[in-house]
Amino acid sequence: MSQFTDYVQPRMGRVFTALGLDVEYERAEGNTMYHRDERGELVPVLDLMGGYGSLILGHNHPELVAHAKALLDGNRAVHAQFSLREEAGRLGAALSDVVRRETSAKEPYVATFGNSGAEAVEAAVKHAELVRVRRATVLADEVAAHAEQARQAVRRGEARIDADAFEQPGVRGRATPADGIDGLLAAVGAHNTAALATRPLFLALERSFHGKLVGSVQLTYNAGFRAPFQNLGTRVRFVPMDELGRPETLERIAEDERVTLLDAEVVDDRVRLVERDLPVVTAFLLEPVQGEGGIHALTTEQGRAVRLFCNRVGTALIIDEVQSGMGRCGAFLASSLIGLRGDYYTLSKSLGGGLAKISAMLVRKSLYQGEFDLIHSSTFAMDDFSSSVARKVVEMLEADDGRVYRQVTERGERLTRMLEDLRAQYPDVIEEVRGKGLFIGLQLRDQGEARSMVLRGGAYTGALGYLLSGYLLREERIRIAPTGSAGNVLRIQPSAYLTDEEIEWLRGALERLCRILRYEDTLHLVHPATDRTIPKPRAEIRDFRGAVAPYEQGEPRPVSGPVRKVAFVNHLITPAHLRQVDPALADLGDTALRSFVLGMEPVKQAAPYPAVRITSPLGSAVDFALYPLMVGSEQMGRYLASGDVTGIRADVEERVRAAREDGCEVAGLGMYTSIVTNNCTSLKVPGIALTSGNALTVAMGVQAMERGARDRGFALADTTLAVVGAAGNIASVYSQLFAERLHRIVLVGSGRDGSVRRLRNTVYGIYGECWSRIAEGGELTGVPARLAEEPLITKWLAEEPPAETERGRAIAQYLEERYGEDPFLTISQSTDAVREARLVLAASNSPEPFLTGEHFAPDAVVCDIAVPNNAVPELTEQRPDLAYMLGGIVATPGGESLHPSARAFLRAGQLFACMAETALMGLAGLDRHYSYGNITRRQVIDIAALADAHGLRLADYKSAHSV
After folding, report:
1. By the number of CB atoms within 10 A of the CB, which of 301, 340, 688, 693 ranks highest?
2. What are the residues whose beta carbons fall under 8 Å from the beta carbon of 812, sequence distance 6 or more?
3. Using the 8-state DSSP alphabet, how is residue 563 labeled?
């Protein structure tokens, strides 16, 4: 683990590692960065991320480096606060001149400097609000003065109140003519006070990104960035870019947000009320080319519509050129290319030339408020070093009549032609190429319907673009990344000095990537995210489009009842199962797959599988869908052993919430997902019923063991059952059920402290259930039949039995006193006792397997329901005479099957019992938790009867783990 991951960005560091992006760059020049590989060799990488647009002049441009060195060698005063910062002044003048030249503006601009783009946005927002507040204050003062003038005019008899004044919407109901001028003005004052309390509104575009600081994040459209802090910020209304060309859209906003003050005017000796528009909209913010939102450029028509709207409602237009400006799109301001002029501009990124951290907010001089000098400042802003470097950048951009701008335009056109050629070759992979200059987005088609679960999962989580970035970095030595809010758009932002050779380098890499996506050969994407000391097993790109059979269900059966959606949260048993999930990974070894799964720890969510429609013979149906977690049993066991289950519980809860949001009414938890959540009880997700599936798992396990005994020719009533780990809830319920079928059970404990006490509680529970069977009447078998012959039970039937909580204990004590030892239930702390039984249930919570071939009687039937297994993996090789199973498998009512890549050890038409219980709850309309926490014998019996009614029956032994 790196110190960056340990001490700076713990989550993102792990994500970088998971996706193959965990490199440390040593140096950079031009469009090339260098890192060392696993062998310590220096690896050059073509950098097309360009510092998210900060490197229009490339890394460490020699002219800029020389300038910076000269500044440092000259011991320039970096911190000279409370003085005339003339270097900042020269930069401000240069920026004002460039903006005026490009926009043909007559008035100059005043600059406020900061350290980042988000700070520039914050400065613009603060200043625009200061202007709005000043305007509102002037208006309010004017209205108040008019009110007092009207009051005095009426009192002096020089004016009278207009008859319509009391019918104004803000006055009606608050004052009547009888209240006179004082009543009228009191109502006006109340209306105006409420209006002046209106929170200011900002307008921004959908898909916008304006930063992540407390203020700027409110203006960023991505809810993932904004939602956690939405209660800290101002009001923002997001406008779809595509609707800017429709006049009614902006007109509707203007009307929706209009707030007025009532102004009392004296005209022709009459006091009348008129509406005065209160400035409520502080500013309209936009990016000429949206970067994080997926590279969407504003059109001339859209820009004109926004400018006209701002002029009409009297609000400021803030143009965010942080990423699109400084030559990135072929001009100093991208907005100038569409003839759009702003009241404010925000600049940063390439302004610092890749060396200085600097930003600028420019505002028209006629708008600038002098007090802003004092109420907005920064310790590190306006320093000579950053200001001088930025001024040098402006000089270089403007040199030779804007040669850099022309070069950006020409290089951008050349790059775009190459990308369009690729799109023509791979229209099934590349959807669109868009952008301006060297600010280009390559939009890939959605992989949500791919047969490859790696591609589908990446599309589902939004991580596919980052997985592709890992491939391009590790396999093609190209540094690129998707946009922050559109994961299927690769952002390309090289320097102005991009060469033809580098463009062809990119062409070859993207052509191979397109073939990988077209053929769904995900090995090439996954290998960079594994242990990279393991050689890549093959270099060629193969076609895997037909490797996974299409998911085709048979003709749907008639449904006469309700159809409900249910979900089942599952996970990998071992990383090796990924070969079944995605056949393209077949050539990766177990070690590589394990490395991949362990590395995906920060991004465990995977795409839900297509739902299978399961129809009951009673007429109802469910759409059953798997919601997987990319995590293996090894990790789950580690969480439990360490006690650190908070994270995995949150992951499971996220899957349940996702299922609920998709309309699922029931969610089942499988294997370790139920264990780490204490059989669902730790989850707090309202609006969805939960189940661990344990009740039907027990019912089918009992039936499977009975079938195993019959197959071996055992007379069940004469067979002894050994229960290993008998103190647990599930093992106890198994024992209660088998007590009704046979006459002797050996309960085997762990030998740890308290084991004997817990086993005795199991005994008391079994006998308590036996008494309940006897008390109910009817035909008795097994232990209840034998107990019914005992004098104690005869006495209880004739008289009152003891309290319910004492009955099991009383029966156990009676049997030991009468026979010297319990003839039906035997407690043992030694696994040697297992050899006494021909039926064995293994249910210990031991973290390691401990039952070997030596522990079992000849031809025994062994049902191992422990997770992890109690039996050693080689048991069936040691003892081929044993019937070894892991529980029961359920046949679906109409042969309905899971997706082929999700069946694991199932055949067509089968479900694991925990899955079947989930489906059954939907079929039966159970809207409450079922196997939630500890289960009871009654739950097992009831769910078994319900399963039978809905056509879910035992299909086979379960001889391998479910996923």
Report:
1. 693
2. 760, 763, 764, 767, 822, 825
3. E
